[in-house]
Amino acid sequence: MSFLLITATATFAQDVKLFRIGTGSTAGTYYPIGALIASAISRPPGSAPCDEGGACGVDNLIATAVTSRGSFDNIEGLVSGRFDSALSQADIAAWAYRGDHVFTGKKAYPQLRAIANLYPEHVHLVVRRDLGILSVSDLRGKRVAIDRPGSGTRINTLLIMNAFGIEPTDFEAIELGPEAAITALLEGEVDAAFFVVGYPSVAVTELAETGRFTIAPISGVAANQLILTNRFYTAGAVPLGVYHGVGTIPTLLVGAQWIVQQDADEELIYQITRAFWADSNRELLNSGHVKGRQIRLQTALDGLTVPLHPGARRFYEEVGLIQPPQVTAEPDPDAGPVTGEAAADVSEQGKTVTD
Ligand code: GLU
User: Fold this and answer.
1) Residues 197 and 267 in one domain
2) Are 242 and 207 part of one and the same domain?
3) Does a structural domain hold residue 355?
4) Distance between CA atoms of 207 and 270, rounded to whole angstroms?
5) 194 and 313 share a domain?
6) CATH number of residue 113's parent domain
7) pLDDT per position as a tens digit, 238-286
8) pLDDT 10s digits, 277-335
9) Which of 73, 110, 294, 314 is most buried by a 10 A CB count?
10) Do 95 and 102 meet the contact criterion of CB atoms below 8 Å apart?
11) CA of 197 to the centre of ligand 1 (A)
């Protein structure tokens, strides 16, 4: 009896593959979306068949959504081996890949590769209604929760403040994660907080429902200038009705991407990409966080800021979303060395990179 048990355990340990997805705080959207992704791509041993209501993922794969501080932390976690894949804002992924902006002076991570673009995130500037904060410019002299180091939100907040001509000495920056920022706003310890997050954000929902908070717009000349110089950002709006008592609010958007490292096993990433986009998983993606519905195969390659992983590329070629590279009959003697798909040019900001 005990012999059988040991054998079974050994087989389990050998066959099962764990796959950790770095996400964000439990008050954000990355975490619930990461959990949906994990469910879609997992198929633990003993699962019922997919068409009988069982898991529809990759055989013997157990994926898990792991909490983190956000995009920057996720990339650091991915390259250090804490995560097997990560969710990241398009801007942070691009800067990490190229080793510039917030990654200046650190190592560049040219090994970053994309599985898919997921959905747009909106910059939410939540403000106390009683303070009359109508724009970013009104944050001068205020106490602002900017999120913790490791988050994409903190990086974007400082960038936006700078674009609006607000120096770090012009306001009180308070480094609080999303959960702590909610409490601080509710208790009157801060006046405003930034959340770069796919809507509806549970944090903003909770705050709006009190009737004491609204969202301030991020628009006008300074916002447009930011978009022109950083082409990862686009202008958009949080629509009317998303949050209690909040109208249509113009703001900035940035894409959320799902990334891995170049050395992730090609066959595994192919299987994961295929399972993720399988029709059998559509209902699952539609039934969780609202953003799950906006995750669409048609937009999987939109605005990618790092090259596709070869396994993901194989899937997109198979379904006709991208063309396989053309094979020329005669090698061109004047052509430079073939450096493969890693030679993708991402030097141009915001450029869609698919090869
Ligand atoms: N975009 C945020 C960040 O990187 C995280 C958003 C979320 O958790 O949904 O800091």
Assistant:
1) no
2) yes
3) no
4) 41
5) no
6) 3.40.190.10
7) 999 999 999 999 999 999 999 999 999 999 999 999 999 999 999 999 9
8) 999 999 999 999 999 999 999 999 999 999 999 999 999 999 999 988 776 555 444 44
9) 73
10) yes
11) 5
158 CA to middle of ligand 1, Å?
15
29 pocket-lining for ligand 1 (C-beta < 6 Å): yes
Query: Which atom number of ligand 1 is nearest to the Cα of residue 151?
Result: 10
Q: Is 89 in the pocket of ligand 1 (CB under 6 A)?
A: yes
CA of 257 to the centre of ligand 1 (A): 11
Query: If you measure from the C-alpha of residue 338 to the centroid of ligand 1, how many angstroms do you get, rounded to a whole number?
Result: 37
Q: Is 305 in the pocket of ligand 1 (CB under 6 A)?
A: no
Question: How many Å lie between the centroid of ligand 1 and the Cα of residue 79?
Answer: 18
**Same domain (yes/no): 30, 144:** no
Instruction: Please identify, among 204, 230, 254, the residue that sits at the C-terminal boundary of a domain.
Output: 254
Tell me if 70 CB under 6 Å of ligand 1: yes
Q: What pLDDT was estimated at residue 7? A: 47
- On whether both 17 and 43 belong to a single domain, the answer is yes
**Rounded Cα distance, 196 and 122, in Å:** 6
Q: Which of 229, 254, 279 is the last residue of a domain?
A: 254
Q: Looking at this protein, which amino acid is placed at residue 94?
A: A
**pLDDT tens digits, 152-189:** 999 999 999 999 999 999 999 999 999 999 999 999 99
Please state the domain count of the chain. Answer: 2
Residue 350 lies in a domain: no
Helix (H, G, I), strand (E, B) or coil at 29: coil
CA of 267 to the centre of ligand 1 (A): 29
For residue 156 and ligand 1, the question of a CB distance below 6 A is answered with no
Render 222-261 in DSSP notation, one character per residue. Answer: HHHHHHHH-TT-EEEEEPTTSSTT---EEEEEEEEEEEEE
CA neighbours closer than 13 Å in the CB half-sphere of residue 126: 35
Domain of 126?
A: 122-254
> What is the value of pTM for the model shown?
0.89
Pocket flag, ligand 1, residue 28 (CB < 6 Å)? yes
Alpha carbon of 123 to those of 34, 264, 289: distances in Å? 20, 31, 18
199 lines ligand 1 (CB under 6 A): no
285 plus 138 within the same structural domain: no
Residues 111 and 126 placed together within one structural domain of the fold = no
Distance 123 CA to ligand 1 centre (A): 10
